[in-house]
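Appendix B, record 7
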Amino acid sequence: MVAIGSPMLIIGVCVKLTSPGPALFRQRRYGLNGEVIDVLKFRTMTVTEDGEEIKQATKNDPRITKFGAFLRRTNLDELPQLWNVIKGEMSIVGPRPLLFKYIPLYSDEQRRRHLERPGITGLSQVNGRNAISWTRKFELDVYYVDHLSFCLDLKIILHTCLKVIKSDGVNAAPDIT
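Structure tokens (predicted):
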């Protein structure tokens, strides 16, 4: 735990030193079976006057801090989700938990993605991440639910490591993060 805790402490201090506001960003999302969870991330954007970050960021969004851009590029902003894993709300591998605003748009088939615990990484992250369509993301999420196995998880983890090292698929277009 110290091996993860020390870098997280350093990152948290750097977030605080490079922009005013809290080090962590909490966002409510749906977890296993539609349970509401608070997903944690290191804050990568400036904070609005009321303390809330509004509207989803785009690639060249001026609200993204310089240190925040580094965190996003290296995926280090996701590290606090290990706390969600420890609490049993998330898994290392699984469908990424999405924003509430997308839930009404799901088909019955797409809602099946909530039959497994959401993950820090998942099949759609290693198969195009933001460069693939929403339809394809949901197809991959449901495929994962239907084919869950240790070998599939291991394959996803290995591919995730390669994607992180290469910063592959972080931003596909100027309007998507």
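Remarks on this record: Strands lie at 24-30, 36-42, 91-93, 119-121. The first strand starts at residue 24 and ends at 30.
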